[in-house]
Amino acid sequence: MTKILERQTFLIALTFVTGLFLFLLKPFFAPILWACIIAILFHPVQLWLKKKLGELPNLTALITLMACIFLVVIPVLLLLTSFFQQGSALYQRIENGEIQLAQYFDQIRQAFPVIQQFLERMDIDIASLQENVTAAVVGIGGFLTQNAVALGMGTFNFFTKLALMLYIAFFLLRDGRQLIEKLIRVIPMGDERERLLFQNIAGVARATVKGNLLVAIVQGMLGGLIFWILGIPSPLLWGVIMMIFSMIPVIGAGLVWAPTAMYLYTITQWFEATVLIAYGVFIIGLTDNVLRPILVGRDTRLPDWMVLLSTLGGLTLMGINGFVVGPLIAVLFVAFWQIFSEDFNADKYANQGSSEIETNTDDLIKSKSEK
C-alpha cells in the first residue's frame, strides 16, 4: 500500500513539474517549433556531411546550420522586409484615394454581367459584398502597416527569438537522435508505437514544409514574375500573397491572378489578360501537380479534406505556426486511432482464436469420452 501511494504521489509530482516546465516554454513555442522543423528538414544534409567528414557531430551540425541560414533564413528576412514595404505603400495609396477599390469593383461587375446575375441568383447583396471586400483589403493593409512598425520597434525581440531558434536547431541537429531514443525509453506507450508516432511526426512536418511551403514559394515566384512582366504594380506583394494562398489546399494562387485577369479584361487589356490566364492555368496551376508528388512522396497520407480543415484550423488558432501544427495534430489523431484499431482488432481476434480452440478441445474430449 505504501509503495502504491509513493508511486502515485511521484507521478502527480512528475506531471505537475512537467506541466510547469512546458508552461515556462510557452513564450518560446514558435522558436522551438521551427527549430524542430529545421532539424527534420536538414537532417539528410547532416547525414551526407557525416559520411564525408566522419564522426564530427559539432562540425557537421554547424555546417548544416550555416547552410540553413544562407539558403533559408536570410532570403526569408529580405522577402518579408520588401513585402511589408510594398504592402504599406499600397495601403497608403488606398488611404489617400489614389486607388479606388469601389471603382475597380464596379468595372468588373459591368464588364461581366454574368457575375452580377449569379450573385443575384444566390441572394448575395452586391453592395454588401463590395463593402466587405473593401473592408478586408483595407484591414489587410492596416495589418501590414502595423506589423511593419512593430517589426521595426521589436527588432531586438525578433532577432532574439531568431537566435534562439538557430541555437536550439544546432543542438537538435547534433543530439536529436539521442534525444528521440531517450524519449522512446521514457514514454510508457511501447517502443513500437512511439517509433511509429515519431516517424509520423517527422513525415508530416517534412511533407508540410516540402510539399506545401516549397510549392507555394515556387507558385508565388512564378506569379510575381508574370505580374512584373505584365507591368502590374507591386509584383512582389502579390507574389507573396499568392504564396500564402497556395499554402491553403483547394484555395490556391488562382484567388489572386484570376480576379486580376478579369480586371485587365475590363480595362480592355486583352493581350495581358489572356497571357495571365494561360500562364496561371498552365504554368502556376500545373506546378502543384508536378512538384508536390516529387517533393512529398508518401511522407503523409492525409486526405485532402483533412489537410484543408487542419490547415485552416491551425492558421486560425495559431497563426503561421498553425500551418505546421494543424496537419501535425491531424496526423497524430489518425496515427493514434490507427494504433488503437490495430491493437483492438488484434486482441479481439486473439480472444476469438482462443475461444475457438477451447470449443474445439471440448468437442474433441466429448467425442473421445463417447467412444
UniProtKB/TrEMBL annotation:
<feature type="transmembrane region" description="Helical">
    <location>
        <begin position="270"/>
        <end position="287"/>
    </location>
</feature>
<keyword id="KW-1133">Transmembrane helix</keyword>
<feature type="transmembrane region" description="Helical">
    <location>
        <begin position="213"/>
        <end position="230"/>
    </location>
</feature>
<keyword id="KW-0812">Transmembrane</keyword>
<feature type="transmembrane region" description="Helical">
    <location>
        <begin position="31"/>
        <end position="49"/>
    </location>
</feature>
<feature type="transmembrane region" description="Helical">
    <location>
        <begin position="307"/>
        <end position="340"/>
    </location>
</feature>
<feature type="transmembrane region" description="Helical">
    <location>
        <begin position="236"/>
        <end position="258"/>
    </location>
</feature>
<protein>
    <submittedName>
        <fullName>Predicted PurR-regulated permease PerM</fullName>
    </submittedName>
</protein>
<dbReference type="InterPro" id="IPR002549">
    <property type="entry name" value="AI-2E-like"/>
</dbReference>
<comment type="similarity">
    <text>Belongs to the autoinducer-2 exporter (AI-2E) (TC 2.A.86) family.</text>
</comment>
<dbReference type="GO" id="GO:0016020">
    <property type="term" value="C:membrane"/>
</dbReference>
<feature type="transmembrane region" description="Helical">
    <location>
        <begin position="61"/>
        <end position="84"/>
    </location>
</feature>
<keyword id="KW-0472">Membrane</keyword>
<dbReference type="Pfam" id="PF01594">
    <property type="entry name" value="AI-2E_transport"/>
</dbReference>
<feature type="transmembrane region" description="Helical">
    <location>
        <begin position="148"/>
        <end position="173"/>
    </location>
</feature>
